[in-house]
What we know:
Helix 5 (112-125) packs parallel to helix 6 (141-154). A hairpin with a 7-residue loop joins strand 7 and strand 8 (281-283). Helices cover 56% and strands 9% of the residues. It has 3 domains: 3-85, Up-down Bundle (Four Helix Bundle (Hemerythrin (Met), subunit A)); 100-296, Rossmann fold, CATH 3.40.50.300; 302-434, 434 Repressor (Amino-terminal Domain) (Orthogonal Bundle), CATH 1.10.260. The radius of gyration is 26 Å and the shape is flat. The protein is α/β, with parallel strands linked by helices. Guanosine-5'-diphosphate binds next to helix 5. GTP binds at residues 106-113, 189-193, 247-250. GO terms for molecular function: 7S RNA binding; GTP binding; GTPase activity. InterPro entries: AAA+_ATPase (IPR003593), P-loop_NTPase (IPR027417), Signal_recog_part_SRP54_M_sf (IPR036891), Signal_recog_particl_SRP54_hlx (IPR013822), Signal_recog_particle_SRP54_M (IPR004125), SRP (IPR004780), SRP54 (IPR022941), SRP54_GTPase_dom (IPR000897). Its EC number is 3.6.5.4.
Amino acid sequence: xxxxxxxxxxxxxxxxxxxxxxxxxxxxxxxxxxxxxxxxxxxxxxxxxxxxxxxxxxxxxxxxxxxxxxxxxxxxxxxxxxxxxxxxxxxxxxxxxxxxxxxxxxxxxxxxxxxxxxxxxxxxxxxxxxxxxxxxxxxxxxxxxxxxxxxxxxxxxxxxxxxxxxxxxxxxxxxxxxxxxxxxxxxxxxxxxxxxxxxxxxxxxxxxxxxxxxxxxxxxxxxxxxxxxxxxxxxxxxxxxxxxxxxxxxxxxxxxxxxxxxxxxxxxxxxxxxxxxxxxxxxxxxxxxxxxxxxxxxxxxxxxxxxxxxxxxxxxxxxxxxxxxxxxxxxxxxxxxxxxxxxxxxxxxxxxxxxxxxxxxxxxxxxxxxxxxxxxxxxxxxxxxxxxxxxxxxxxxxxxxxxxxxxxxxxxxxxxxxxxxxxxxxxxxxxxxxxxxxxx
Length: 440
Ligand code: GDP
C-alpha cells in the first residue's frame, strides 16, 4: 500500500539525517522532496504545499531534542501531520436507533455493493448487530442479485422489490421490514452511475430526505486518485454525507485519495476496504495509516487482528503442548488456518515494521500455504500427532499424496524440526513466557 510514497518520503528524510539541528537552510531540500512525493502520489498541489509549509514551520520552530536526531524529529513531525491531514483521530459510526439507517452512495463500480455486504458482516460479527441489507438499485437487476448472493454468504437478510421502480418507496419499505423483523441496522445500497449525473443525485437525495439516515457513506475507489476527490466533492455538495469509504486499497493505490479527501470535503474516512472477501474491511485510523505510509508498519492493527481470531481455549492447549515439546503437525495446521483468517497475507506483512518494503517485489498470494497444507493433509492422523513416526518411506508416500517432490517434503520436515528446537530453547529461557499470545 502506498509503496512508492513510502519510499520517496524515506529518501526525503535522508537529506537531513546527518545534520546537527534543523535550520531553514538544511530543511529546504527535504521539504521540497516531501512535496514532490505527495504530488506524485496524486495529492493536489495546494494540499501538498500547505502540508509542507506546516511541516517546515513546525520543524524549524521545534525544540532541539537531545534524545533524537533531526531526521527522527522530522519523521515524527511528518507522521503527526499526515495523521492530521487524514482526520486526526478515528471517526465512529453512528448506529444508534431502532433501526439505525445507513445509506450507501457512490459511482457504479466504486465497490458500493461489496462494501454494503462487508459493512453488514462487520456490524453482525464485530458489533453484535442484526442488520438488514436493502437493494434500492432500480436499474440493474444484477445489482439485486449481487447483494442477495453476498447476503447469503454472510447470513444477512436482503430486502428487495424487483418490480418496484420507486427507490424511495423501497428504502421506506425496507425500514418497515426491519422493524417488523427486529433488525436494528438497515444498510441501503443505492444505484450508481458511471459518472455523476443529475438523476442519480436527485434519487439519492430523495431517499435521504425520506429516511433521514444516521449515516450517509460515500464509497469511492481509491485507485482513481484525484478523480476520487472530485467525485467526493460533487457528492458532498449535494448530499452532505457523513463519512467516506475508500475501497480497493489492496490495489496499486498511490495514496492521493486517502490523503486529500478529508481536506477537500471535511468529512472523515470511516472505513477502508481492501479485497473482495467479506472480511476485508477495516475501521480507518489516521494515525495508524500515517505510520504505514512512513514504513513503520502497524503493529496495533496486527495484534488486534490476531486477537480477533484468537481462541483462548485453543491457545492454552497450544501453550501446554509447546511447553511439553509436543507441538505437532495438527497444531501447525490449525495455526496456519488462524493466520489465514486474519486476512490478506501481503497486507498483514505490511503491518510489520520494515517488512512492507522488504517484501515489495515479492508476490505473496493467499495460496502461499497451500503446499504446506497439502503435505500435512497427506499425513495420517497418527503421523500428524507423532512426527517422529515419519520415516523415509512414509515421506515418499506423503510426497506422492500431496503432489510435491520428496525434496520439498524433506525441506518442510526439516523446517518443522528446527521450529520445534526453537520452541524447546525458548521453553528453557525465562523469556519463554513472553511469546506473543501465549504464557498469559
Ligand atoms: P458497485 O457498482 O459500486 O456496487 O461496485 P461493486 O461492489 O459491484 O464492485 C465493483 C468491482 O470491484 C467488483 O468486481 C468487486 O468485486 C470489486 N471490489 C469491490 N471492492 C473491492 C476492494 O476493496 N478490492 C478489490 N480488489 N476489489 C473490490
